[in-house]
Write a structure and sequence with these properties.
This is Probable nicotinate-nucleotide adenylyltransferase. One of its GO terms (molecular function) is ATP binding. This protein is α/β, with parallel strands linked by helices. Helix 5 packs parallel to helix 7. It contains 9 helices and 6 strands.
Length: about 210
């Protein structure tokens, strides 16, 4: 169910600075904790997709995951800013402001409020493998172009997934990745060549604390 009932001015405050016509990648996640793979994926996407910015959308909680060990939003936001360390990567709490945990609500809000921006949804291959479990995943694919970043050894599982098979005819050759932001949805590309395979799960202790911190 959509929950976009927040006062519009608060939406504007939660969105990073931008100008009309910008090509913006959207990378959603819990960032619990953020890590160098998030940064590497974003910088990789900036180059390969010829984006102006990547926005990290720090979710209040993932509907497909157990959120009992989720750190406070403010802590994850600040940690994300520290890890990003790039003026082209911005951190946003938009999903908390519009009171949703669903990507479809986020995309609906951004497209409605900022029609002059060209958005691309960025996800890892591990997320493509379970994309068919996302709320209104077909509507997501129909509203925004998507870039899937290969994360070995997830390649085969991702490309054989129900969503990848259903959207196969909309897949672009990797050589055309730079044009993705200009394509009408549905359109997606599978990007290879990034070999960093960190995960937030691997950086958490059994009690939910982040490794390297108390």
């Amino acid at each position: 169910m959509s929950q976009n009932f927040v006062v519009p001015r608060f939406v504007a405050q939660a969105v990073p600075p931008h100008t009309g016509g910008m090509r913006i990648g959207l990378l959603g996640g819990s960032f619990n904790p953020p890590h160098q793979a998030h940064r590497a994926i974003s910088r990789f996407a900036l180059t390969r997709l010829q984006l102006d910015r990547v926005w990290w959308l720090v979710t209040p909680g993932n509907p497909l995951k157990e959120n009992g060990n989720l750190h406070e939003l403010g802590e994850r936001m600040q940690a994300a800013r520290d890890v990003a360390d790039d003026p082209r990567i911005e951190v946003s709490c938009l999903e908390s402001v519009i009171r949703t945990r669903y990507t479809i609500d986020t995309i609906n809000t951004l497209r409605r409020r900022f029609p002059g921006l060209r958005f691309v949804w960025i996800m890892g291959a591990d997320n493509l493998a379970q994309f068919h479990r996302w709320q209104d995943w077909r509507r997501i694919a129909a509203q925004v172009p998507m870039a899937v970043i290969d994360r070995p050894p997830q390649s085969f599982r991702a490309l054989a997934s129900p969503a990848a098979q259903a959207l196969a005819r909309y897949r672009l050759p990797e050589i055309e990745a730079a044009s993705l932001a200009d394509r009408p949805a549905p359109a997606w590309v599978f990007l290879t060549g990034l070999k960093l395979n960190l995960s937030s799960t691997g950086l958490r202790n059994p009690d939910g604390s982040w490794k390297g911190t108390k």
